[in-house]
Amino acid sequence: MWLLTFLLLILLGLLGITDWLKARRPDAARHLQPIEPFEGLIGAVGIVWGLLLLLHWLASAGVLRFAPGVMLVKLILALAMLALALILALPLLRSLFGEGDFIAWLSRLVDRMAPYKLGLGFACLVLALYSLVGHAF
């Protein structure tokens, strides 16, 4: 569970800051090129995994009074992963499910979250680092 969360945070974070990286370092485009075609798929996996993390957090909410800091970080991790994954997976979801009411609502939600894509990308990378350090100790 930890390793998949860590890998998804890294991939989502990199995809979230891709435009910023390309603007700062044009040579970074060739390094990011292998994962860019899978942006929608990585986003879809991130949605599923983020929902599972959120359900896991809800199931272990009783621990909140004993370890509130850790539980808060886990909630932020799940929400950041879900938000960035929704932004990245929306084109794939549109192609799979068409233009129904739910996709239109989801599209409006993603339009409101889109300005925060860079911040969510950095948040995912920082949370991946926190996860790595927390797992090491």
Q: How would you describe this protein?
A:
By secondary structure, the chain is mainly alpha-helical. It contains 7 helices and no strands. It has helices at about 1-15, 20-25, 30, 40-60, 70-95, 100-115, 115-135. Helix 1 runs antiparallel to helix 7 (about 115-135), helix 4 crosses helix 5 (about 70-95) and helix 5 (about 70-95) packs across helix 7. The longest helix has 30 residues, at about 70-95. The model has no long low-confidence stretch (mean pLDDT about 95).
Give descriptors for this structure.
137 residues; mainly alpha
Brief rundown of the structure:
This protein has 137 residues and is an all-alpha fold.
SSE blueprint:
Layout (H helix, E strand, L loop, with lengths): L1 H15 L1 H7 L4 H4 L6 H21 L8 H30 L3 H13 L3 H20 L1
Helix pairs in contact: 1-4, 1-5, 1-7, 4-5, 5-6, 5-7
Distance between the termini: 17 Å
| Number of discrete helical segments | 7
Residue runs with pLDDT of under 50 for 5 or more positions? none
| Major pleated sheet | none
State mean pLDDT (0 to 100 scale): 93
